Structure to design on (75 residues):
């Protein structure tokens, strides 16, 4: 089980959220969207040039900024 950041996943890969970095504003926003530690996610698409990252969480799809995806640790 290796821990990496969400933006390091490849399209089609699934992972489980482990933790967030220390940005409390970002954490509260992610939790409101259902992106919590312990939740299984799948990376669907990556935008070019560090563009948005589209993930599937539970039964819906969410687009995150690249810099926000860098703050999410997964395994």
């Amino acid at each position: 089980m290796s821990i990496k950041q969400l933006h390091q996943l490849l399209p089609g890969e699934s992972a489980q959220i482990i933790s967030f970095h220390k940005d409390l504003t970002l954490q509260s926003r992610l939790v409101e969207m259902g992106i919590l530690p312990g939740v299984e996610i799948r990376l669907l698409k990556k935008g070019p040039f560090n563009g948005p990252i589209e993930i599937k969480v539970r039964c819906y799809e969410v687009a995150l900024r690249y810099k926000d995806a860098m703050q999410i640790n997964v395994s």
Q: What stands out?
A: The two ends are 6 Å apart (CA to CA). Strands lie at 4-5, 14-20, 40-46, 53-57, 60-64, 72-74. Residues 30 and 36 are 7 Å apart (CA to CA). The chain has a mean pLDDT of 92.
